[in-house]
Structures are given as C-alpha cells and as structure tokens.
From TrEMBL:
<dbReference type="Pfam" id="PF02803">
    <property type="entry name" value="Thiolase_C"/>
</dbReference>
<dbReference type="GO" id="GO:0016747">
    <property type="term" value="F:acyltransferase activity, transferring groups other than amino-acyl groups"/>
</dbReference>
<dbReference type="InterPro" id="IPR020616">
    <property type="entry name" value="Thiolase_N"/>
</dbReference>
<dbReference type="InterPro" id="IPR020617">
    <property type="entry name" value="Thiolase_C"/>
</dbReference>
<feature type="domain" description="Thiolase C-terminal">
    <location>
        <begin position="259"/>
        <end position="379"/>
    </location>
</feature>
<feature type="active site" description="Proton acceptor">
    <location>
        <position position="367"/>
    </location>
</feature>
<dbReference type="Pfam" id="PF00108">
    <property type="entry name" value="Thiolase_N"/>
</dbReference>
<dbReference type="InterPro" id="IPR002155">
    <property type="entry name" value="Thiolase"/>
</dbReference>
<feature type="active site" description="Acyl-thioester intermediate">
    <location>
        <position position="89"/>
    </location>
</feature>
<dbReference type="InterPro" id="IPR020613">
    <property type="entry name" value="Thiolase_CS"/>
</dbReference>
<protein>
    <submittedName>
        <fullName>Acetyl-CoA acyltransferase</fullName>
    </submittedName>
</protein>
<feature type="active site" description="Proton acceptor">
    <location>
        <position position="337"/>
    </location>
</feature>
<dbReference type="InterPro" id="IPR016039">
    <property type="entry name" value="Thiolase-like"/>
</dbReference>
<keyword id="KW-0808">Transferase</keyword>
<comment type="similarity">
    <text>Belongs to the thiolase-like superfamily. Thiolase family.</text>
</comment>
<keyword id="KW-0012">Acyltransferase</keyword>
<feature type="domain" description="Thiolase N-terminal">
    <location>
        <begin position="5"/>
        <end position="250"/>
    </location>
</feature>
Length: 381
C-alpha cells in the first residue's frame, strides 16, 4: 500500500514585520527552503514531481505562481513544475494534504510541500485593495458585507467566556515557551539561517518578547471592539517566513536510502461559521480523531495556530486535550504568523518536536479565512 512520509522539514527563522527578512524577496525565501531540503537530504531536484506552495496574497511579488518561480530561482531543472495554493492561513498545511494525496494515489513519488509569506513586502489585504471579495449574496445570507477575523476573535472570546486576563496570560505563556525553546536550542535543527547580502545572518525567530507582564498587556488598546478583549499582545504577529517538507512514499525513501521521520496518518478538512470564522479547528479536530480511531489522550503534541488567543483556548475547552501538550514550543503569538508559510512552519516544528521527544502521534490544526480548518495527524516512524 502506498503511503506519504516526511523525510525532511525545514524553515526559515520567522522575521518580524520590517525586520531581518523584510529585504528578501519572497521568491528568494522560498528558493532558500528548496535548496536547504536538497542540501540536507542529497535528493536530486530532478526527482521532484511537483512543488506545492502555499501563499495567501498572490499579488505583486507573490504573484504569477510563486511556486514555479521559486523552483527556477533555486536553480532546479526546468522540468520540475510548481503550483501555488491559497486556503488562507492554512495554505501550506493544505499543500501537505495535496502532496500526501498525490503520493498515496500514485500521481507523485517525490514532492515538496510548503509555503511562504512576506507580509512586510506584500501586506495583508493587498489582494483586496479597492475590491470586496464577497458578493451581494453574502450580505443577504449573513447580514454583513464582509467578515473580519478580529471581530470573529471577539465573538469567540464572548461565546466561551474568555476574559482579557485569561487571553493575556495565555499569550505571555506562548512567549515564555518560545523563549525556552530558543534558549534550549530546540529550533536549531529545523531552521535554515538566511544570510543577507551584507553578510548578516538571520538565524533566530524575531518576534519572541521576554519579560512581559499581564499588567503591561493590560495597557494595550483593544483593536476591534472598544470594550473588547483583543489587542496586539494577544494576537498573532505580522511576519515574514517560509517552510517546506520533502515528502515521498516509504518505498521511494528506501530506494533513495533515506530514513523517514514521520508519515501522514490522517488529513481532513472542516468548515464552520464564516462570521465567527475561527472556530473550525474544533470540528476539524473531532473529525480527524474520529477518522483516525485515536482519542485525545493518544496525541502527544498538539499544534493549534494562535491566530488570536481565543482560538486555541476555545479549542482546548471543547476538545479536552492536556494543556501541556498544546503548542509546547510557543505559537504564532510569539513566533509570528507568515500566513501562507505558517502551516508548513508549524508542521516543521511539530515533526521535529515529535522526533526529539519520541512522541508517536501529533495533531496540527489551524483556523482559516472563510471559516475553514485543516487538521492533520502525523505518526512518528
């Protein structure tokens, strides 16, 4: 039986908005990941059947099929194709799903899945400037002209009774866990440092803040609702970064003399209310667990994207997973959220964490624009 295994997973550091990676073209960031995968595994690029690359704002420097442009920029043979995917924040997690499906079905033997977003260079919302992507039917159905993720986060906080202090405490913990991971060298093996033209090496995630306090966060102004709870300190950061995974069948890995790290055990999708927008990780996780036959206690590590603090906290309340298993190395509140690259960044972090700690099963899920979510269960090999 054909399967889909991950033989390598690598990411750039996540750069702050206008930080160390802001001068790097997103195609060059992507090409850096492709080059790193080849260098780490010794796999000849001409063996790659496709490069599936997530990217949300496919406009400007990220337009015109960034996947193919990255392949050519990396110096790979012109015979290697590439395609770009937009499932909003879950774009590069969806890339992994597409890659796995292609491997299992026999369309691929070797494939790269990943993604990129340079939010410094192509700001969020650029593709919607002077345009409303929703038709009149959306207004008629939902009573609003356009859905807003920040407002959705406020809806979730109210629905699940999440106070500002609870959200802020969770956010501070994200920074603390990420700082501990950096200090402990837990990200070193998964990061491919980027050397800038002036020789500066960007090697560490730039968004992590140390020494924060609940009292300090309490001074920040809420953004989406005057008497609300969502502010910059308990939201994901605007970031630059890329990540990718080299995937193949077990049979192909054996043929190439490679040892797989993990296999894609279960991959599902779910949709939910597009106005609250960020709740779909809950039904996606339920669906993944049911399909896999696993229970929450059998999953040793969970990654739930921290788009806003209410998202993983509402998820935790509904799924009942162990607190300590959730985002053990911090999440997007601390590390950043380079939209189209986040799914692959999170999966890279998850796969390395599982290997480092001997964890058999890991589950990743993330909310997506339009009220959707991917959920993926990975099994350590």
């Amino acid at each position: 039986m054909r399967d889909a295994v991950i033989v390598e997973a690598v990411r750039t550091p996540v750069g702050r908005r206008n930080g160390g990676l802001s001068g790097v073209h997103p195609v060059d960031l992507s090409a850096h990941i492709l080059t790193s995968l080849v260098e780490r595994t010794g796999v000849a690029p001409e063996l790659v059947d496709d490069v599936i690359w997530g990217c949300v704002q496919q406009v400007g420097e990220q337009a015109n099929n960034i996947a193919r442009n990255a392949v050519l920029t990396a110096g790979w043979p012109e015979s290697v194709p590439g395609t770009s995917v937009d499932r909003q924040c879950g774009s590069s997690q969806q890339s992994v799903h597409f890659a796995a499906a292609g491997l299992v079905s026999g369309q691929y033997d070797v494939v790269v899945a990943g993604g990129v977003e340079s939010m410094s260079r192509v700001p969020m919302g650029t593709s919607m400037i002077d345009a409303n992507p929703y038709g009149d039917g959306f207004l008629q159905r939902y009573g609003i002209a356009m859905a807003n993720q920040g407002v959705g986060a406020e809806i979730i906080a109210e629905r699940w009774g999440l106070s500002r202090q609870r959200l802020d405490e969770f956010s501070l913990a994200s920074h603390e866990k990420a700082a501990a991971a950096i200090d402990g060298g837990r990200f070193d093996a998964q990061i491919a440092p980027y050397t800038l033209p002036d020789g500066t090496v960007v090697a560490i995630d730039e968004g992590v803040r140390r020494g924060g306090t609940v009292e300090g966060l309490a001074k920040l102004k809420t953004v989406f609702k005057e008497d609300g709870v969502i502010h910059a300190g308990n939201s994901s950061q605007i970031s630059d970064g890329a990540a990718g995974l080299l995937m193949m069948t077990s049979e192909k890995a054996a043929e190439l003399g490679l040892t797989p790290i993990a296999r894609v055990h279960t991959a599902v999708l779910a949709g939910d209310d597009p106005v609250a927008m960020l709740t779909a990780p809950i039904p996606a996780t339920v669906k993944a667990l049911k399909k896999s036959g696993l229970n929450p206690e059998e999953i040793g590590a969970y990654e739930v994207n921290e788009a806003f603090a209410p998202v993983p906290l509402a998820w935790l309340a509904e799924i009942g997973a162990p607190d300590k298993a959730l985002n053990p190395n911090g999440g997007a509140i601390a590390l950043g959220h380079p939209l189209g690259g986040s799914g692959a960044r999170i999966m890279t972090t998850l796969v390395h964490h599982m290997r480092d700690n001997g964890i058999r099963y890991g589950l990743q899920t993330m909310c997506e624009g339009g009220g959707m979510a991917n959920a993926t269960i990975i099994e350590l090999l």
